[in-house]
Structures are given as C-alpha cells and as structure tokens.
Amino acid sequence: AVVSTQSTGVRVPREPCFNMLFSSTSLISYPDYVFLRSILYRPDDLSVKSFQMLDLDQNGYITIDEYYALCKMFTKNDEGDPKQHLRTTLRVLLFDHNDEDVVSLDKFHRLLKDVQRNCLKAEFNKFRSKVNKSDMISVQGFMRALLRRTKVSQIQRARFIDKSEAVYKTLDAITFKQFQSMINLLNNFSDFEVAVRMYQIAKKPLGRDVFKRAAYICCGEHLDDEIVDILFYIFDEAGDGHLSHSEFVNIMKEKETNVLAQQKETPHTVGQYFRKCVRNEMLRSYA
Fold this sequence. Notes:
The chain is 58% helix and 3% strand. It is built from 15 helices and four strands. The strands form two sheets. It has a two-stranded antiparallel ribbon. Strands 3-4 form a two-stranded antiparallel sheet.
C-alpha cells in the first residue's frame, strides 16, 4: 500500500505530518531521496538557501512545477514526464493530492526539522543497548555516534572509547535531547570554529565556559554540563582541564571531508558494483 495515492483512502492532515515519510507504507522516489539527503544535517541558514534555489521565480513559495524541475534533474529522458509518475508520499505532503498546494519557507523548515529529528532518533536508537533506559544511551554509544562522523583512525577511536568506558562504564548518561544538541553543534561546526579562532591565533586552549558560550552563539542552545564534562574528559589529551585546537577542533572539523571521501570510494553504477564484486571474489579465491 502507498499512503500517497488517493485510492488508498488515506487522508493527509491539514497540517502536514512529515513523520509519515518514515512509515513502512510510504513511497519515496529517487528525486525525493536526493532532495531529502541534500537538506539533512545542514544548518538553518543553508536550508534557507536551498529553499531559495528551488523557488525559481523567487516569490517565496515552491510550486509543483518547481518541484518537477528538481525531479527532471534526476530523471532519465526515457523515463517520461515526472508529472505522470506515481504520487509519492513527499509530493502529497508538500502539494496535497491535487498538486495545487504550495510550500512556504515555514513549511519547508518544518520538513527539514522533522526529517532531521527522525533520522537522529533512528541513529540514537541504533546505539542504545537493551540494558539502557528507553530514552537514554550510554556514554560509549554516544562516543561511537560522535566519532563515526570524524576521520580518526580505528586505533584512536578505540582509545577514546576505552577512555570513556574507564570512567562512565555504568552510566546511562545521554538523553536524546542531549544527543540532539551535540549533533546540532557539529552541523554548525564551521561557525563554532570561527567563534573560537581567536583562541587558536593566541595559542590559548578552550575552557569550559568559553566552549559553552561559543556553542550557544553558533547553535542558539546551551550544551548540557554533562555533555561538556564528557567532551573535556575524553578529548583533553594534556589533562589540563582545557581543550586545545588540535585536541578537539581539528578532529571534528574533518567530519564532512570524511563523508565525501567515503562517497567518492563508494561505487555508484551497476558496472562499478559488479567489478567490485568480481575483484572481491578473486581476492577471496587467492587468499
């Protein structure tokens, strides 16, 4: 069943509930996926820029025709007119069943926030073990979620995890709200780096108060003291109660480079997947 077709009898609420995108019966096309992927894990100011790029006539609204222009970018010539394709869940949520609704910046922003929150919640649950409370993850799970966004080596990653286990072994410390606030900081990390650059120039390490103030300036929300304490304990290599530029900023700012490198190494065509499979089988046969 597809929630986005009128034949199913499913009604879209007057105020779109973008959580429907994560239903087991939802339908998402490849252009929808690319669109959602492009706005995930982005600061709010970039979401505004994305909206403005889609709003071709710059009237403050995205229409169905402007949405089709996006679809055509990812549709082959022999796949026909995107207007004739099956209505996807995202298309119905944005433009209603009759394709006559429009998307305002506020509606676009709510879409961004709902998708981000659902993806973060899924990631949060991935690192929650059976012994954890339903709304918490361990510090080790939190560190694994944090470090997977960086370029640190496996050895260095294991050392950070071991360090967290030494002190926080039995503590279910991290709530989803705390996790979300930390990820929000990482999504705005370029602004954070600018905010603390004067300390780098002066070769002065960051204290807790400066760290929290810079995080608030960049994200508009206060990092919990418990999160700050964990970060300082794990990344303070010198043990002086401060974070130097190399101890934290250099590690975290390379997260996007790491993602791009992984995407570059990942095959994207059937032929590339086939060649990779053949190569792996040959290597296995000679092992």
